[in-house]
């Protein structure tokens, strides 16, 4: 048996959720409609027409959920606020909505769980989508007003603030491939959305900083491990460069280097709206931040394909996963290799996380003095509960153990990673997959809404309590 891996003092052990995925109470206390309410009601968009109306009912059960976190030795809870709860029309503050997050924050603090707040986890108020959504520049300014409203209610008690979760998904899945709300499919709009999300991020960071210079501010990006099918083959190397660029560097370059990378701009040249970037935008977007949240789950092996093969590859790609039919993936085939996969069909690649953290530290966060946190990692599997609802989820436990080992390897290589948030605390509404895919370390019985910790939760509680992975 190998020696236990001990994590540094102060390492934050947490779990994560998002408002639309867990809260439910979709029409209570004045909450307005968000784009996921609409998308989920559009036939054919979400598995079996599921929606977030009830979800895990966290809105009413938050006190029990926080008690459970404490029982599981969790030191931090990463949650998101629902813009449509705080501002039902995207513009006007709803006090009752803010009050929920105030109660949740107080509950967390009373149980010594550090609150980590994400302002936007994909649930744009429908009223703002109707006014143009993220492809409209005005949405970035509305986001700043929303951030300010949340800060004025909770800024006295919350230190960690991240603006956006995975803007790649909001822009490219929401406006490019249409796999996520609002389900639009226009490549140029996806690029507009991406730019305005980042602009909103930068403006919000500046505004929050001016309100309270002591806040810890940043955002969370999703990253993937992208490898060429044949590293000797120029076409495959270029396919890997392209997908790495569009998924990993698209946001990191403007944020940390104040410019879109020339090779990526070239890849999307035909779609690029000439009037998109206004003077000064990139200075705003690259406003220094304190933390970068890293969401990492998987990776892809890619192959370059000629124009003749491109159509067949595109058809295959639609079956292959989120990145494969998005903007810029033309002429790239995502290989369906016979390797270990999770219940989402995502390849299990723990070593990719070590490489990613080392690379981010070298290319972006190290020079900028920005701290790294893994803000999401975890896995969905086809859980089989016993008669009491208990799940012996050995695969998930092994997935998390291996990825924590990968984080530890990065720390041993000198990368300062300051925390890890397991996705997710609870089984929840998994977007287009509805309640069919379960990421939780705690099972939710959707008939009774009972919470039943799985084997992975018991194990993670020991890890969080001891700061050690055996
Ligand atoms: S779908 C997705 N997820 C899951 C979701 O439940 C959560 O809200 C998200 O933050 C689990 O974690 C995130 N992320 C999409 C990942 C897209 C991967 C794209 C790969 C690019 C090569």
UniProtKB/TrEMBL annotation:
Coiled coil: none
Documented EC number(s): 3.2.1.21
Pfam families: Glyco_hydro_1 (PF00232)
Active site (record annotation): 376 (nucleophile)
Transmembrane segments: none
GO MF entry, a single one: beta-glucosidase activity
UniProt keyword Cytoplasm, yes or no: no
Enzyme class: hydrolase
Catalytic activity, reaction form: Hydrolysis of terminal, non-reducing beta-D-glucosyl residues with release of beta-D-glucose
UniProt KW keywords: Carbohydrate metabolism, Cellulose degradation, Glycosidase, Hydrolase, Polysaccharide degradation
Domain of life: Bacteria
InterPro entries xref list: GH (IPR017853), GH_1_N_CS (IPR033132), Glyco_hydro_1 (IPR001360), Glyco_hydro_1_AS (IPR018120), Glyco_hydro_1_beta-glucosidase (IPR017736)
Similarity field: Belongs to the glycosyl hydrolase 1 family.
Protein name: Beta-glucosidase
Gene source species: Ornithinimicrobium cryptoxanthini
